[in-house]
Amino acid sequence: MSSSTLLDLQQKRDKLCLKIGQQWDELIPKIEQREHSSELQNVIKELYDLLDECKEAGQDISDRRKRKSLQTIAREIADIIFRFTKEYPAIVILPAKSSVRGLQVLSELVSAPERQKNLSSILDISKRIIRQIELLYNYKKLHDLLHTLEFQTYIIMDQEVQNFPDNETSEYILTDCELTLQRTVDDMREVQVQLDSGVDKAFGLKELEQALAELSKALEESNQQRLQRAVLIINHVLNIQPVLINAEMTAVARSLDLDALINAMISLQEILANSASQGSIRLREDATTAATTINELGEKLRSLMAFHDKWQKLNLELRRIEANTESDLLELEVSWPYVKAQVETLYESSKDKSLLSLKRESSKLEQALAEQNLIKAKRVFQSYRKRGSYSFYQVDLELMKLLSDLQQVSAPIVYRLEVIE
């Protein structure tokens, strides 16, 4: 390898650092507002591309001094990436493929063959588990989109069927529903790209696109029948897809071997035990913290997933009962003992205070059933269902935050590995 090649890499590094400095004032507001920034992603991509060039150059290098210079360049690039991830971990979470590529480049620059072999093993384990965490996160995001759709769009549309098109206010309300449904469809498409699912795992996206088209035509033509068709399509999706997504989430969570990731972090600590460089010391401390945090989050994840699964089954049952209590109380009377038993298990396994209000509504509902008061029973049941949905939503938020925390502690550690001499 010639010295001019090293010089070329140094110049590229300097230009990239200058570019980051020039764009910094534009990038930071977007990062702080948690916006997706294509500029930021391009900068990160260029950093990894430069690391790739270092890797290719290192394959032919034998001169110790030049190899030392190459390692210095790679270390400086890694330090830039480290500063991004440390300052804004919730924003700068790269796909596992990019994270692993960064680690692979750095590990291949390590001179000790045994150490490189161990790092490669950590790389493989981390790559597999990070992919699972991201998969679980995206399934949860899909589930939450449908959960939100039910309360921000479906219920409102269902109520407006009787008012449309004669009521002018109804048209404004449904126009808002159209915009919300459009955003949901757009967000689901984005998640589908991350999941890389086939047509057989579209999770209702095609149906929601059809519902959106029907709603748009209903508003355009003042057509109540089209509105009813849109409502029925969305209802069909909400009856089926959340349960299927929950099943996928449960399967991924059960196969998620966080113990292996913890052991990988412990192995990383051992590899770095005798290294005195500041970067290695910092990474060793990060690995120690990550192992402890992942263990704590893993225990919470198992508990929350079980709780979420119970809520999903209960929510499905409440939806079914609601659809069959229009004219009499028979469905509610027959199903109530089963529902009550399900809810009792939630009381036992949660400290959520919102469940106390659900318990109070339960007593009111039993009283209405005893009185055979259809109107009162329907009103109390609707209140019960809303309170239950709110409690389920709180579980959704907690689980989503936990998965985000898992991403933040596990993904960055992979690509923050610095060159060990």
What would your notes on this structure say?
There is one protein chain. This protein folds into 2 domains: 1-92; 135-257 and 295-405, no CATH class. Mean pLDDT is 78; it is low at 89-111. Helix 4 runs antiparallel to helix 5 and helix 12 runs antiparallel to helix 13. The chain is built from 13 helices and no strands. It has helices at residues 3-32, 38-58, 64-87, 96-108, 113-160, 168-195, 205-221, 224-255, 258-271, 278-322, 330-348, 354-371, 374-415. Helices cover 83% and strands 0% of the residues. 32% of the residues are buried. The longest helix is centred in the first third of the chain and has 48 residues, at 113-160. It is mainly alpha-helical.
Main sheet properties: none
Rg, nearest Å: 27 Å
Please provide the ordered H/E string of secondary-structure elements. Answer: HHHHHHHHHHHHH
Give the helix level as a range of percent: over 70%
- Beginning-to-end CA distance, first to last residue: 20 Å
- Quickly give the structural class: mainly alpha
Return the domain count.
2
User: What share of residues are in beta strands?
Assistant: under 5%
